[in-house]
Each structure stands twice: as C-alpha cells, then as structure tokens.
Structure to design on (353 residues):
C-alpha cells in the first residue's frame, strides 16, 4: 500500500485552474520532489496534501485512509516551511516540544522525543538557546526537529533551503538525505532548484502551469525528457534546443552545418536537443564561433554560434582557446534528442521504439 495516494487532485480559484489532475503514489521511505518554476502549482499541491488548501476535486489518501476533507491536525503529517516559523521568545527545546504539548502528550514522552531528535540532528547543545541566537542552518535543523518529534506518516517540506547560502544549502541537502534514509518515512519536498531535485529525489515530479509534465527518477528525466520543457528545465547548464531539419540521416542546422540524426528519425522539421557536455570540441566537427567562455575550474563552458544558433559546449578544462576563435564540435547520435516543433513532445526514434 502506498503511504500517500494523490488521485486526480485539482485546485481552482474561481475560473483559474492552479493544479490540474495530479496523480501520484508515494511509497513509504520514498522522497518525492515537486519541481518547477514559480507559479507551476507545486506549492499549492503540497498545501492541499497538508490541508492548508482545500481540494477542489479528487482524492487524497494517507496510509490508506481518505483524508481529503480532514483538518491538517488529523492527517498525520508534519510540515517544514521556508521561513522556519519558530517562536522567538521560546527556547529551542520549547519550540520542538510545543506541538506535542498542545496534543496533551505526557512530559516524559515529550522529553524523550525532543532529546532523540536533537541527537539525530546534532542540536543537543542548542536546546537552551532561543532562535535569535542561532544561524540559518541551525534554525533549519530546529525546524526539521520540530517536525521529526511528531513522528508523522508523511513529511512535507516547502522550499526549506531557499533562505540559506549556496555552501550551507549543499550541506543541508546532504543532511536531509541522510535523515530521510534514517527515518524511512514518506517525504514530499517542493523546490524550484533542479540541483536540489537531482541530488535528493528518489523520483521527481516536474510541473508546469498546474500540470505534471513528467514523473521519474533523476536520471530518467535527465536522460529521456518527455518534452522540450523538461529538457530545458533539467540540467545545468541547460540543454541546447535548436530548430533543425532531419534530412537523409543528418540533423541540418543550416547550410553545411549538421549533426548526426538519431537512427530511425523521420525527415522533417524538429526541435533538436543536445546537452552541453555532449556537444564537445572534436576535430572535423561543425564550426562553432566562440562568443563567451566560462571557466569553472575543472570544466570550461564555451558559448557561441553554431550555424546561426546560440549554443553551449562543455568540456574538460581548456585555457588554450580565446573569444572570437572558431572551434569544431560534435555530438554522438545517442546524445541527440528530438522533439515536435509545435507540441514540444518527445519524438520516438529507432533506439526508443
């Protein structure tokens, strides 16, 4: 039985459809990331699961129990917010214990749960402090601890790391991943950051304009994006998307400039996708006029013109090429993705069936 079952869940505000028919099964111990740009419906979906937004239509089950119309307190969930939502006048111990105390839990059990969570998150030494005395990372751990003491069936995290700097975000990602494996509970995690999604998720739910675009493991959505939106959204740097023509087994970008077309691709206009790390400097390839260079330490990113198209080429460190030079680049046939120009949907080729 799935820990969370979301069935055709829909949310409307008047005539505006914010979320359109989400279907999702979340297993116990699975970390699902809802990913997409601002306004795509990911936070609204999470808030419906939490009970903070009503469900316009559809059904929500947690541990097999229909909770569609239940209040948040009756859903066996715990939520971690972006802004931590800690009581500034209470100690960390009191913040973590507050929800349990309000539910009438015995003091000895509250103390045990708070102590256990504090040890797990390495914040035992902070229990007598107040939020104003903590760093952002410490406050995030406290927010996680406050959810952890509830021992819910489902954890809901809404952009929990967005207020942290880049180095601390990376560290907290590692800690959340370790915590998830340790507690083995279902977790729904909302973010607009595809790096967070790729590094944390068992599966990613990619959303756009209230609709689910694709559900899959990080490598599934990276290697075989369902449409051009997913292709461009997943990956950093983003995938090159080029209007091209398949003709005679070649992907023609302009007169005399071409890449190999995937086997079995039908002749005609397409939107071709190739990731920067697959489009690499290669002797005898297509000519790329370098217009920009980003040195990333162990890697170099070239930005330039390829047959009238602005593209990115990522390779190992190169410091022997200057702006306005011309290099030749190529990509293997297997690294070329084809999408319908009008709908953006992925086009099947011989290798995909």
């Amino acid at each position: 039985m799935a820990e969370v079952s979301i069935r055709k869940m829909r949310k409307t505000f008047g005539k505006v459809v914010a979320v359109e028919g989400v279907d999702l099964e979340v297993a116990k111990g699975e970390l699902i990331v809802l990913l997409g740009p601002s306004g795509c419906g990911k936070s609204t979906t999470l808030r419906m699961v939490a009970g903070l937004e009503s469900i316009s239509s559809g059904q929500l089950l947690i541990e097999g129990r229909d909770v569609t119309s239940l209040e948040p307190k009756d859903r066996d969930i715990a939520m971690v917010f972006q802004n931590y939502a800690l009581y500034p006048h209470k100690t960390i111990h009191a913040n973590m214990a507050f929800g349990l105390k309000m539910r009438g839990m015995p003091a000895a059990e509250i103390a045990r749960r708070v102590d256990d969570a504090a040890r797990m998150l390495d914040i035992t030494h902070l229990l007598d402090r107040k939020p104003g005395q903590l760093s952002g990372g410490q406050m995030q751990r406290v927010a996680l601890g406050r959810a952890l003491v509830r021992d819910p069936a489902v954890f809901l995290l809404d952009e929990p790391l967005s207020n942290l700097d880049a180095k601390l975000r990376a560290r907290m990602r590692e800690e959340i991943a370790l915590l998830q494996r340790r507690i083995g509970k279902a977790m729904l995690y909302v973010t607009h950051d595809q790096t967070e999604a790729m590094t944390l998720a068992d599966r990613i739910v990619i959303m756009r304009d209230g609709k689910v675009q694709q559900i899959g493991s990080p490598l599934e959505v990276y290697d075989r994006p369902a449409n051009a939106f997913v292709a461009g959204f997943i990956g950093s740097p983003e995938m090159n998307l080029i209007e091209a023509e398949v003709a005679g087994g070649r992907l023609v970008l302009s007169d005399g400039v071409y890449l190999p077309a995937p086997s079995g691709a039908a002749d005609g206009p397409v939107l071709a996708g190739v990731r920067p790390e697959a489009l690499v400097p290669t002797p005898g390839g297509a000519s790329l006029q370098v217009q920009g260079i980003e040195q990333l330490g162990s890697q170099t990113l070239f930005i330039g013109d390829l047959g009238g198209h602005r593209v990115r080429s990522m390779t190992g460190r190169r410091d022997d090429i200057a702006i306005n030079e011309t290099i030749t680049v190529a990509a293997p046939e297997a690294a070329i993705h084809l999408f319908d120009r009008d709908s953006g949907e992925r086009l099947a080729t011989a290798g995909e069936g």
